[in-house]
Queue: 3 jobs
Job 1
Amino acid sequence: QGRWYGRNIFSYFKKTRDLITLGGVFIYSSLLPLLFLSFFHKFFLFLFVIDFSFLFIYSFIGFIITKSLYAFAMIPINVVRGAGELIGMIESIKNNKGKL
């Protein structure tokens, strides 16, 4: 599902100009690349911590609203979904390279 969503995010953004959704997609999809890059330079670790903080705050707000610990289970779910979205965005750019 995340991969499909990632493939369509740019066309969705062109139609709606929904910056909040686009920002969320970039936050989730950048977690794993930033974690990987943090092994090579500490600046990426700093960016990863900021990125993860947004995700944690989002989950904490969900916990406050729902009073359910399931809100924190959304962290690994969103990391996996974000990886799929990243793959979808890369596929979208690759497939539309000649159409831009």
Note: Helices lie at 2-16, 19-37, 42-66, 70-95.
Job 2
Amino acid sequence: MTRPRPRALSGIKPTGSPHLGNYFGMIQPAITLQDSHDAFYFVADYHALTTGRDAKVLRDASREITATFLALGLDPARATFFRQSDVPEVLELTWHLACVTGTGLLMRAHAFKAAEEKGEAGTLPAGTFFYPALMAADILAYDSDVVPVGRDQLQHVEMAQDMGGHFNAAYGNVLRRPEPMVRAEVPTIVGTDGRKMSKSYGNTIDLFATEKNLRKAVMSYKTDSKGLTDPKDPDTCNVFSIYRLVATSEQIETMADKYRNPPPEGFGYGHAKAALAEKLLEHLAPARERYASWMSRPDDLEDVLRQGAAKARPLARAVVERVRAKVGLPKHPST
């Protein structure tokens, strides 16, 4: 079936406040796609259940993610934004995929391999082991054409392709094959300790942290020991790598020159960190105001999620009905 625009789908897990890595790596590129694609984005609250055990935290985090996307420019009239659990059909599709997927494929997933290397595979929750099947169902349930991902997440799409292929091989051409959309120009955002920015590492800078906390986090960035008058390489500095994402071309060039040719009074990493903090506060100020406004209106956030689910669920239901017909199950009673 030819579509006016390709359908793009992506999700984000509501585990803590969104940080700069989420923003530059997923949220900003995703929002841009609403101009060129039939964009579907969801809050992956089912996925959050593999690690979270606090119902209030999950509900609050889901609202934070929704408010973040809206504050940063997502337009519900041009993109479909919904809560994963408001479309329970993905759980049924997960089971159908699990029934044609070998455990060997699931054991190649990054999460399982990491647990295996730590000697913790035997204690891994079954939900985490089957996580790739649920993720594949998320992708396949909406007849997605493309899935925007970073290179480190490419496996998710590949596994969805494999599972959909297994199902199609067993039952015929039922599920649409998605393709990854790898954005080479999206950099890996480095956290304050030098590793990839991640909540699990505790090295993040929250998007809408208070001014005091944002400055404190930026000033904690790990750098080398070069002094004020020592030449420095901006291309290997984690502070500069983020500065160049929020500064103008002229500001980037000026900062790089100070790194390589410090002025007589010197230019140290402390100066670079202070400049980065200022640019982040300036860059995020308008979105911060919109975020605060959305968070003060939880009913409006729920309306956005409900309206998104009302658009997404019929698509998932149609896919599941195709699947049920092929495997020999009756139509769902609600259809």
Note: The chain has 14 helices and five strands.
Job 3
Amino acid sequence: SSGSVLAGHSSGNPFLSALTPSTGNLETAITASSRVLAVQGQVVPATNVDVRLWAELENGQRIEGESNIGHAPSPIVRLGCIPERPPALPRALEAIANADLIVLGPGSLYTSLLPNLLVPELVSAIRRSRAPRLYICNLMTQPGETDGLDVRGHLRAIEAQLASLGLNQRLFPAVLAQDDLPSSALIKHYQSRGAEPVICDSKGLKKDGYDVTQAPLQGARPTSTLRHDSRSLALAVMRFYRKHKRESSQQ
């Protein structure tokens, strides 16, 4: 019944939109879709409130809607939502409170990751947690969303979002980024479509107090796309977690 309203959305959005009326709300729709898709683990929404994203651009323009923000004609300065300060889902707060490790990313910076930080109760729960917190940066920039951003640029966007909530503390002091990618035909193909490798100034970030880890996250086998390899990424995350546990036990 939504017609063309869902045009341009990823396939998951219409799927959840179709399930939500029959299951009652977004939380139960996600639970049902997890069963249908045999998802491992639990998927918990940040909020049950029907929110609409908006972005303020460097050129002064304001655009609304996830699909429009993903193709912004000018660099994004600030992200927000209507209604403002939506309440967190209790299950999400419980999951954060019980977490051994809190990870942000990989994913679209302004349309997948930062929207979670628009829920103040979630931000407060992450701040209270004693679990290590890790930001996983994307391999490539996303045309229309993160053009020209290196790892530091991604981190600045996260910190600027938190500053808009009055938080001037680093929420994710540890960063996991891709090793420098060598030039290849695949890289050139991405560059022809407006994407560039996300460069990591490891020395500079460490000098600024970040805990930086670089690893070959795209995997060793040749592929037709530049994506995180699930096994390579999992191993890098577990190495980070074990290192953090060792350092914590020595303090």
Note: The radius of gyration is 19 Å.
